Amino acid sequence: MKKVSTDRVFKAGFVVWITAFVSIYVLAVIGVIPEYASTMLRAGWPVILRHSLGYPHPNSLHAAYLVLVVFALFLSKRLQKGYLVAISAVLFLGNCYVFIYSLSRNGFLVTTFLIAINIYFAYRAKRTRIENIILMLLMPIGVAFILVLPLVTSGEVFLKFNTVLAGRFEYTRYYLTYEPLRLFGIESIPTPQHTYNYVIDSSYVYLIFRLGLVAFFLVLLMMTYVLYDALKDERRTEAAILISFYLYGIVELYLFNQSFKNFTFIFMGTCLFRILGKFHDAEYSLTGTKEYFIEIERRREQNPIVPINIWVFDAVILVIVGILTSCLYLAVIPAPQNIYLPRSEEKDSGDGIPTFLTEEEVRELKKEGNIIRGYVDENTPIYKMKSASVAKVEHIRYVISYGIWGGSIAFFIFLFVWTAKSRVRAFKRNKEIGPDYKENVLIIHNYYRIPGGEDVVVANEKRMLEEHGHKVICYFRNNKEAGDSSFIKKIGLACTSLFSLKSYREICRLIEKEKIDIVHIHNTVALVSPAAYLAGINMGVPVVQTIHNFRLVCPNGVCYIKGHVCEKCIAYGLKASLINNCYRDSKLQTFVMSLSMRIQRAIRTYASINYICLTEFNKEKLLTIKQISKDRVFIKPNFTRVDSEMVPYSDRKKQIVFAGRLEKIKGVDLMLQAWMKMGDRAPKLVLCGSGDLESWCREYIENNELDNVEMIGQVDNETAKHLIGESIAMIHPTQWYEGFPMTIAEAYTVGTPIIASDIGNVGSLVVDGVTGMKFKSNSVVSLAKTVERFINEPVTIPEEYLTKYSEENNYKILKSIYENIRRN
User: Fold this and answer.
1) Of 71, 247, 565, 571, which sits most exposed with the smallest number of CB within 10 A?
2) Preceding peptide of 12 cis, ω within 30°
3) Domain coordinates of the chain in residue numbers?
4) Domain 429-552+606-635 falls in which CATH fold?
């Protein structure tokens, strides 16, 4: 453990162990390694053939699989609970598969217990003191069970325990009764002269005799402390492994011999180093120098070589091909009626009938589907089993094994082909990264039925990139393609929004044909679908998504419902959206949108792509998705072009302009109430725009005789820019988070400060006292006081803000982002 972290030990061990396990299994199946097999005669069981599959004994086979499970669970301890459950399910299925060959009850039970208790630790992060006490008591109770009960029980109780534990009670009673206990153990433990069957088959009985009472109590004390330390520091997987092995030691010898000490002693060694690390003075330290202390390896976030969606798809291939292979085996190979075994495999049960067969008879029997193992020649007897159970179980094993082999072969072929193609594509795209290289960019955007601000941003960025020498390829779809809103169309659209095979294929073709360097996504709802992300990821091209709204954390994309801001999906999970039917007030559409987001989170799509947020506030909300690394999130606002000269601030009209939709969500009603409250002290307010509150605004202005408020209706963008540029301020009383209002960028560019509510992106874009003033959202009094304060103490926009949202500055940021994500 010198300068080696536990994680590194387990990573290296896993590679070695899985290579050895699979190799031994395959070599045993194809007959290169002779395997140990024998019929088992156990009370309550039919006669069945046990297999070791290349290991010395079937028990060793299952013990080897247990070690593999330990490696897998330890290395997956940092994964999300969903992944841990999926891995645990696969490991349990493997446990069942190994059991049908090994028939090792102890191996099966301890492996199942380890998987189960590991899941328990994962879902019980906050355990009670009683739970921890029970966990700590499991080992001493188990030790007392194997050391004390054999001495104090008798009669039927003793016989029952002894039968269940395959004679261990009898063996333990003999050794504890007739062999003397020593302080420091003995070199070899004697076997009773009257029988050779008496063996020590418990780790704790072995320890107390082999190393003596002193070592016994010291080791148990150390084991207890290591478990306590793991529970205290919430090293849950480590605690699960320790408890499982402590209990396994009750009925097996593996805990302290060289087969198993690697796990328990690694954790003990790590614990000792941690204790020694607290002593800096050499006179108290056994090692005396820091060079012996463990260095914990810092975990690095990096993309997996194979994306999780490919693993999922490959797993589906494994299952389908496996089922088809098993069915094909059943259809082609007749079920065996008999099984013939050599003496070495039949002798434990004595169930066979000695039979002499010629080679021709053997061939004929095999053609009929009969199983013949270990045939030598016509002069050597082979034993025909009387119990039909042996042949039936072997047939079941063959059916399952052929399915696993067929599925596994298809799995690895697909994985190899995909990885090879991915590496070749990556090699071809390994171009120079720097300001002189102009990336080939694929812009992906899904237009809504009603045009919006996102469409303008997409068009502006496309033009900007082309003007700077980039090759820009566009993949656009429009939700108008979905046609009418019939029930059949809705169902089709719902399926497409989860994953569009059409979009996936077309995007993959474009990436390959146009030699795309960057996939830049703006919107995927609903026809493009998350297939755009997966196409880029699977083709090995960096993917960046511009976050125009809050779609990745909120199904309706705006964190606003029924007249108020809502963050329930962020706080309580996506299931909260189904309560209020957040997306278009439809239960079905909300479910589909939520399901789509859940699927992408489950396969960690969001962890594999990069993001451009328009504001720090947007970034803050995006990072509530825990799998997204902050290193993958960049800030780049929208930009605007300066088409006219800036009007000097002293020459401007003494008016404040509002440019936007006249809706309650925009805070228009609060704004007019504030103007009424200010009365004659209020400056002139110019409203440009239209919306649901247009009629209400006219009536309110007329009824309250607000002579300093003028409504000029909907105006074009150039007129709005001119109005903003000749006014002393622009006002943004929004009541929701907004996206990135282009009017803010336009106002800053022409040197117009902003009076805004302190909420969402708008509040994030305005620096109070520097680029404008902020008031408390949803407060008429705060709004009125802030306007009055601004009139008395006007704000002058700093010079750097005049170019902050310019096109040239924006391109520099975007080019830097492209270089960064390509480099990483």
Assistant:
1) 571
2) no
3) 330-412, 429-552+606-635, 649-805
4) Rossmann fold (3.40.50)
For residue range 512-562, what is the model confidence (pLDDT) as tens digits?
Answer: 999 999 999 999 988 999 999 999 999 989 999 999 999 999 998 889 888
- Give 163's DSSP letter: H
DSSP string, 285-347: -SS-SGGGS--PPPP-----SS-HHHHHHHHHHHHHHHHHHHHHHHHHSPPPS-EEE-HHHHT
Residue with tokens 């949108």, as numbered in its chain:
593
604-657 tens-digit pLDDT: 899 999 999 999 999 999 999 988 999 999 999 999 877 767 888 888 999 999
Identify which of 600, 601, 559, 599 has the alpha carbon closest to the alpha carbon of residue 576: 559
Q: In whole angstroms, what is the distance from residue 2 CA to residue 291 CA?
A: 8
Work out whether strand 543-547 and strand 560-561 pair parallel, antiparallel, or are unpaired: unpaired
Q: Which of 481, 531, 539, 529 is nearest to 509 (CA)?
A: 539
What global pTM score does this model have?
0.77
Residues 407, 319: Cα–Cα separation, whole Å: 6
Task: Note whether 50 and 37 are within 8 A (CB).
Answer: yes
Q: Would you give the DSSP letter of residue 192?
A: P
Sign of the Cα torsion 195, 200, 205, 208 reads positive
Long-range pairs, 423-428, Cβ under 8 A, ≥24: 425/512, 425/539, 425/540, 426/540, 428/515
How many residues appear in the chain?
824
Q: Which residues pair with 638 in a beta bridge?
A: none
CATH number of 649-805: 3.40.50.2000
* 317 exposure class (CB count in 10 Å sphere: 0-12, 13-18, 19+): middle
Please determine whether the domains at 429-552+606-635 and 649-805 fall in the same fold group of CATH.
Answer: yes
Phi, psi of 477 (to 5 degrees): -135, 155
